[in-house]
Specification:
single chain, alpha/beta, 5-stranded parallel beta sheet, 3-stranded mixed beta sheet, 10 helices, 17% strand
């Protein structure tokens, strides 16, 4: 799917509120369709495996699916798979080609514990969900939380490796969801004015600047090449394992995020020799082509709020 740049700009100029509401309504229809498929699968498994690359909007989408399931009388519990990271051992932890610790690798995860917990939950048994302390790079059993599912309850396990064969292959009955921004924005000549991968990079850059102490975009942008390598190695090859594929892009999002993202990209201090420099340069130069959408039109439950803040779901 692709969006039209000229139609986006015309809608922002003529009816910004209606444009946002129409786009959000289409997104909500996707949420409802996904929730119904998950509900239909409850007789087979209480587990939902939800995956997607960085900046795909997994957190908000998972929470929205959870809310929709509740309307259907199904209670659900979201579990961040990051809590199943192993305590970091510099001697044995996987490393990328630059020799740095590779946090994108599935081998950072305790796959055996995850699979044992999936099986236990499906049997109605109680588990203790661990807590990974990123500041100390270690898993804490003291901070673990108990979880046990009732007959009409499900657990949504959200993480970039949820669809990896090591997990999904050993849990064939689980409902499987893949989320990513999957729509380019095209100009009138049919050329890409803003690529789908750029949507995720700008989302991540703004989020990191606002909420993760990377107030300069340089840090996020320098990590992007390794993030993309990790996606191609560990995420994209397994997306076909999903029975539910979800496009999280919104037609109005570049216009809404532009006031937050453009200054960050304009003040980058990165070398032209940086891997993917040309991609970042093209992204930064694309913003003047988009009309600005005032933040006041962005609803508090919009997916975009996960990145710009001010929403009901938090960042």
């Amino acid at each position: 799917m692709a969006y039209s740049l000229s139609k986006i700009n015309e809608a922002v100029r003529s009816d910004p509120l209606g444009f946002v509401q129409e786009s959000d309504a289409a997104y909500e229809r996707k949420i409802e369709a996904a929730a119904r498929k998950i509900a239909d699968n409850l007789s087979r498994s209480h587990i939902v495996l939800l995956s997607g690359p960085s900046g795909s909007g997994k957190t908000t989408t998972a929470k929205k699916i959870e809310a929709k399931l509740k309307e259907m009388g199904i209670n659900s519990h979201s579990v961040e798979m990051d809590n199943y990271f192993k305590t970091v051992d510099p001697e044995t932890a996987p490393r990328n080609r630059e020799g740095q610790l590779d946090y994108e690798s599935p081998f950072c995860m305790d796959m055996d514990l995850l699979n044992r917990h999936f099986a236990a939950l499906d049997r109605g048994e109680r588990i203790l969900v661990p807590k990974f302390e990123f500041a100390r790079q270690m898993r804490s059993d003291i901070a673990s939380q108990p979880l046990q599912l009732g007959k009409d309850e499900i657990a949504i396990f959200e993480g970039i490796h949820a669809l990896n064969d090591i997990i999904s292959g050993r849990n064939p009955d689980a409902a499987k969801v893949y989320i990513s921004a999957r729509s380019d924005i095209l100009d009138d000549a049919g050329e890409a004015a803003f690529k789908r991968t750029w949507l995720r990079l700008e989302r991540r850059t703004v989020r990191d600047s606002k909420f993760r102490a990377y107030w300069k975009a340089d840090v996020t942008v320098k990590m992007w090449a390794n993030v993309r390598r990790g996606e191609k190695l560990y995420i994209s090859p397994f997306k076909d394992n999903a029975g539910i594929v979800f496009d999280s892009s919104l037609p109005y999002e570049v216009s809404a995020i532009r006031p937050f993202a453009q200054p960050l990209f304009e003040h980058l201090r990165v070398s032209p020799e940086m891997e993917r420099f040309e991609e970042v340069r093209q992204l930064a130069e694309a913003y003047p082509r988009f009309e600005i959408l005032d933040e006041k039109y962005v609803s508090l439950d919009s997916l975009i709020r996960e990145f710009i803040g001010g929403g009901i779901y938090g960042e």
